[in-house]
Amino acid sequence: MVDLFLNRVLVENNWDQDELNTEREIIGILENRIVMLFFASADCGKCQEFLPVLNDFFKRLKDPAYIEYPKLLALIYISLDQSEQQQERFLQDLHKKTLFLAFEDPYRKELQAMFKVQDVPTVVVLRPDGSVLSPNAVQDIYSYGCGCFRDWQEAAELIERSFMLNEEFDDLNLRSATDPVRRLKYKTEDDKRKKKWWNLWGKGKAGGEEEEEKDSGGMNPQT
């Protein structure tokens, strides 16, 4: 996935429109992530209708206000606008953590051809290795919302772990898979401890009874 944008310039959709153009920056923002390539244009009515749905989908997976640990997900806007003014207008309504290619970058058209994008809006979903997970996830996002991401994770075999920076390993729910094993392990250890304790206690009790019998057997009752 990272290779697709190495030696390219990605721009952050923030106030300063910071450019990410070094290999380290590109790797840092795209490595080990599922990437959504959003092909759209400002003069497309369906794109305008889909935009708030996509924004809501993305913010619920990335914004700290909605989720404690942002997901391993990146959104890149591939503009098919007819002018830079159209692109800028569309970017104003896009989520501020969206990345995009500059209007003058010919790579926009190359990506359109590479992924055979015929219609807009189109959201091409890519695995971390760059292979296509979904050629167009627009309808799935409409229908299933954030549930799509869980499906993408499983299909991409993407493992998130809590020790990764700003990410949470919760969707694969390994806890439910390992709990029975751990409970059995602890139960077995508890049973062993109980058995050992009962054996020791039993031996101690038996030894005490033997001593009592010896004591009582060795003493003649007073008459």
From TrEMBL:
SUPFAM superfamilies: Thioredoxin-like. InterPro entries: RdCVF, Thioredoxin-like_fold, Thioredoxin-like_sf. It comes from Sphaeramia orbicularis. Pfam families: Thioredoxin_8 (PF13905). GO terms for biological process: photoreceptor cell maintenance. GO terms for cellular component: mitochondrion. It comes from the Eukaryota. This is Nucleoredoxin like 1. Residues 32-132 form the Thioredoxin-like fold domain. Residues 204-223 are annotated as: Disordered.
